[in-house]
Amino acid sequence: MYQRIDGAAWRHIWLVGDLHGCLQQLATALRDRRFHPWQDLLVSVGDLIDRGPDSAGCLALLDKPWFRAVRGNHEEMALEALEARDGMLWQINGGDWLNQLAEQPQRDAVARLRRCAGLPLILELHSAGKVQVVAHADYPSSHYVWQKPVDAHRTVWSRERLTRHLEGRGGPITGADEFWFGHTPLQEAKTFFNQHYIDTGAVFGNTLTLVQLQ
């Protein structure tokens, strides 16, 4: 469920919002920021796939040594579909791209999708004396503790905390300095207390958000 990253191993660390197949937008953004694949790290808040033009290409980022990701709800739906538990849910949420691939690319994509089962739900980054936590939708607790058992479903699906923030009823999460989430497309990135929401709906024609964490 948890994974740690020591920021000292990297020059710059960037965090990107939900990609949903928008590989060309990502490539342009990284080029504009002079991202160096041998010195820098890119971290994703999950949802690499579905709805956009190049889900297979975004999924192939898992092969890159300079890339890390937490599991999103779209990866979760894909895994459930591969296990034939709920294939229709994935199809109606953008999972039809897999069947449109040629035979070999489809086999490669399925192998990478299966690897998503090993992605962490929560990533803890140590950088410049700060602890920053990345999860797809939420850290479903009011206090963060490394390896603390939390509800996996809420970690990738829940919008309850963001809803409370938008209604003026939110509060901080203790135990870490900052928390970073995606999942809910917003017109612009928003911060509430020590929680940042950076899915700005690139797949719907909005901008792709990248944040420099180090």
From TrEMBL:
PROSITE patterns with a match to the protein in the record: SER_THR_PHOSPHATASE
Pfam families per the UniProt record, alphabetical: Metallophos
Entry keyword set: Hydrolase
GO CC annotation, single: cytoplasm
Alphabetized Gene3D superfamilies for the sequence: 3.60.21.10
SUPFAM superfamilies (UniProt xref): Metallo-dependent phosphatases
Top-rank taxon: Bacteria
Enzyme Commission no: 3.1.3.16
GO biological process, alphabetically ordered: RNA decapping
GO molecular function term, any single one: protein serine/threonine phosphatase activity
Domain Serine/threonine specific protein phosphatases: 70-75
InterPro entries assigned to the protein according to its UniProt record, in alphabetical order: Ap4A_hydrolase (IPR050126), Calcineurin-like_PHP (IPR004843), Metallo-depent_PP-like (IPR029052), Ser/Thr-sp_prot-phosphatase (IPR006186)
Broad enzyme group: hydrolase
Protein known as: Protein-serine/threonine phosphatase
Lineage: Bacteria, Pseudomonadati, Pseudomonadota, Gammaproteobacteria, Enterobacterales
